[in-house]
Design goal:
It is built from three helices and six strands, in the order E-H-E-E-H-E-E-E-H. It is of the alpha+beta class. A hairpin with a 4-residue loop joins strand 5 and strand 6.
């Protein structure tokens, strides 16, 4: 079992937002269905955030645990084969750790997806306060 980060892009025009919902198409639902088609056995992916109905994304980040004996390129090809044309996994990154921890470790290129929104919000706040001379 290995931990992977997925970098996902999508056109949300035909979807009812990112988060899985009963009886409607969502990006999370489509991604999880594609993962199950290649042997993924978990119940839910962890994602860095959600989008509303009709919203697009270029770098949505998610993480999964998966048994996969081939390389990241084969994994990317396998999952994209099972995804609709308006959703694409642009990259898979395999981590040597067993689970994400709630800290940002920039030197290792690793960010826990559950905390990405909080980190993004903090960065935006810092940028705004710097513009107005606030600290």
């Amino acid at each position: 079992m290995a931990l992977y980060q997925l970098n996902i892009s999508y056109d949300g025009t035909e979807y009812h937002g990112y988060q899985r919902q009963p009886r409607v198409r969502t990006m999370q639902g489509e991604i999880e269905s594609a993962l199950k088609a290649i042997g993924w056995r978990d119940n839910s992916i962890q994602s860095s955030g959600r989008t509303d109905t009709g919203v697009h994304a270029d770098e949505q980040i998610a993480s999964i645990n998966l048994d996969w004996s081939h390389g990241e390129m084969q994994l990317k090809s396998a999952i994209n084969t099972h995804l609709p044309r308006d959703i694409v996994v642009k990259a898979f990154i395999r981590f040597l750790i067993k689970s994400f921890i709630p800290v940002m470790m920039q030197n290792q290129g690793f960010i826990d997806t559950r905390y990405m929104s909080a980190i993004r919000a903090d960065q935006n706040l810092t940028d705004i306060t710097g513009e107005f001379g606030l600290k």
